[in-house]
Structures are given as C-alpha cells and as structure tokens.
Design goal:
By secondary structure, the chain is an alpha/beta fold. Helix content is about 35%, strand content about 25%. The strands form two sheets. Strands 1, 2, 3, 4, 5, 14, 15 and 16 form an eight-stranded mixed β-sheet that branches. The chain has an eight-stranded parallel β-sheet with strand order 6-7-8-9-10-11-12-13. Helix 7 runs parallel beside helix 8. About 50% of the residues are buried.
C-alpha cells in the first residue's frame, strides 16, 4: 500500500451538499473524508477550491471528430484515440462512453462505411497497454436506418466492454429532424450534396427504414441484452415513442426533442439526458426543445457534452446556478450518469469509491479547472 495523497482545505462536492474538508486517496481509492479547513503536513492545500468527482460522459462524438477531422480525411487511429483521451482528461472527464456508429449504408453516395469494430479494437488495445489517461467504455450507436446493423453488432462480444447501446433512427422527417429544412442544411453542409443529391439521400434513407427498421430495432435490443449493456433511446419526440422505448426496457433517453416526450419519460421512470451545448447556447441546434426549459420543469437528469467536451463542466455549473444548488447541478455529470449505466464504483466522493476527482474554482461565472485525477493519478 502506498502513502495516501491528502487533498485538503477544499470545498467538497458531496452527495446533496458542499462543505469544507479534505480527502485521502490511497492506491486509486478514496480512503478517508474529513471536515474542516486544516492542512495536514504533506497535504496539498486546495485553497477552498471545489473538489468534485470526475465527470462521467455517456455520449460524445469527439472520437469520431478526431479520426475524421475533415471529410474524407482518415487520421491515424492510435494517434486520434490518444489525443481524444488527453482532451477529455483536460476538460475534467474521467469516464467516457465513446460513441461509435454501428450500421452502414453501402451506396457510395451515402458515405456511411463500417468502422466501429476496428476502431474499438485499437482503443481496447491502447487501454490494455495502460496508454490512456481515463476510463473508456464503448457506446454503440445502433443505426436502425441502415443495411448492415446486425452483422456489425455481431462483431462485438463480452470482452469489448460495451456499456451502452442506443437506438438511433435518423429517418428524415421525424425525431431529431422533423424540420426538413434543418436536416437539409445539416446534410448539405456535412456531405456537400446539391439539391438532387439531398433528395436522393432522403429517399434512400426512407427506403432503408421501410426495409430494415423494425428488424434492426429488435436485433439492437437483443444485442444490448447479450452484451449486458444499458439500452438507451435517442431523440424520442412523442409519448407514443416513449411508450415503445419503455417496452424495450429502456431506462435512459438521450436528447428527447419535446417537452411531451421528456414528461412521458419521467412518467415511465426513464431518465432524461440532454446536451450541454444545448443548455449553454440556450437552445438546440436542430430547433428542438431547449435543455434549460426541461431543467426548469424538473425534467432533466443527466447532461452529455455531445460534440463539445469542454461544455460538460460549464453546463453543470450553469445548472447549479439555475437551480440554486451547485451540488445538484454537478450531480448531472457525476453521480447521475454513473447511476444510469450502473457504475457503482464512481461518481461520488465516498470512502471506497474510485479516486476520480477534479479541482476547479469559479472565475467570472466559468469553472476553471485546476487539476484532474484518475484513479488517484494526476492526469491534467
């Protein structure tokens, strides 16, 4: 057993409260919590800064951004994974569920090729080599509107640490993109389609949903059970869609697009996760419900950084201000996401939990990170 590291004179963010105290870390685990501002000999004096559990991120597209920084650019994957890992550590994220799409479309104009199996293997190899700073799990984004979902899901098994499977249905004209003008702007910007290309893209996706959608939804649910993974819905819009989600045994809803759907989720005991960028920007980039509105209606449980890793801590602090309770705001990025995916060893400052911790102080209303520890090791 190594000598404990003591972090003293901190504002501890504990379950349901904050108070001044210190904690001791030994061999990657929290071994003691004490009250008061005293600084024992050899301890690190945090000077009253907040000391919070490390952030738990359930849905981020950040790794995909690193492996494809520009259209048609495939960056070396090991380098991309290491850069992604370091970036997340630098924003206070100590546990991440790396989102990878499964389910592809073979038509050249669609540009949806398979990549998840090979990328996951590279990530897991780096993890086994202890080359990564933080804790990584797999989040398989199961695209039901695709051709190859079943085959791609069958490439994963028990050893892959699949912790989350989300049911993704991007059929045009529903869920995230009910507003076709928003979809058109997004797709043309991403793929460079002209009007004809966009119309062909939409028609192809609708045919795909008619041909494979129901089968793929059933197979994705079965796969999640096979992996022992949590199953999540994505972009529920109506109460009827939420009822279907509940029938699948879903307990986490990613980014419901309406108040109706969010309220139905809570009626069914399904936790609601919203995007931190939505909260910070004051609205959805797709024109859907604002995260702030759900927070004010007591319908928001978990935050995800989605496409901006640095948004996670900032949005949680803003929620704390909105609710008048910083501990409650930070719980949406620590204990709540950990509970949603059944990770009982982290997300709280409690004796016996993993020593995943962040230090920050508020500067001009913005949380400024001072340090990040993963398993008791300083990683940022």
């Amino acid at each position: 057993m190594t000598e404990p590291l003591i972090l003293a004179n901190a504002t501890l963010v504990l379950p349901g409260e904050t108070r001044v105290g210190s904690i001791a870390l030994t061999d990657g685990v929290i071994t003691d919590i004490a009250d008061g501002a005293s600084v024992p000999k050899g301890a690190i004096d945090l000077g009253g800064d907040y000391l919070c559990p490390g952030l738990v991120e359930l849905h981020t597209d950040n790794l995909e951004r690193h492996i494809q920084p520009r259209p048609k650019v495939d960056w070396p994957h090991a380098a991309a994974i290491i850069a992604h890992d370091a970036e997340l550590a630098g924003t206070g994220i100590t546990t991440v569920f790396d989102a990878m799409r499964v389910g592809s479309i073979k038509a050249a104009e669609a540009r949806y090729g398979a990549y998840a199996r090979s990328l996951a293997s590279e990530l897991l190899e780096l993890r086994d080599q202890d080359a990564l700073k933080i804790s990584h799990f797999l989040h398989l984004r199961a695209e039901v509107c695709s051709e190859t979902l079943v085959n791609e899901l069958n490439e994963f098994g028990d050893a892959d640490r699949v912790g989350l499977v989300s049911l993704m249905d991007h059929t045009p004209g529903q869920r995230q993109f009910r507003d076709m003008s928003k979809l058109e702007a997004y797709v043309k910007g991403k793929h460079g389609f002209d009007d004809g290309g966009f119309k062909a893209h939409v028609a192809g996706l609708k045919r795909m949903r008619d041909t494979y959608g129901d089968l793929h939804e059933v197979e994705a649910v079965k796969a999640a059970r096979r992996f022992g993974a949590v199953l999540a819905s994505h972009d529920d819009t109506t109460a009827e869609q939420v009822t279907v989600s509940a029938g699948h045994g879903i307990h986490l809803a990613e980014f419901p697009t309406t108040i109706e759907a969010a309220r139905a989720c809570h009626d069914h005991g399904i936790k609601v996760m919203m995007g931190a960028p939505n909260l910070i920007r004051g609205g959805s980039h797709s024109g859907n419900v604002a995260a702030k509105d759900l927070a004010q209606l007591e319908l928001l449980d978990v935050l995800s950084s989605d496409y901006v890793p640095a948004a996670l801590l900032l949005a949680a602090a803003q929620l704390g201000e909105l609710w008048g309770d910083i501990a409650r705001g930070l719980a949406t990025v620590t204990s709540a996401p950990a509970d949603a995916v059944n990770l009982t060893d982290r997300g709280r400052i409690e004796i016996g939990k993993r020593a995943d911790l962040i230090r920050f102080r508020m500067r001009a209303g913005v949380p400024a990170l001072g340090a990040v520890w993963s398993r008791g090791n300083r990683v940022a």
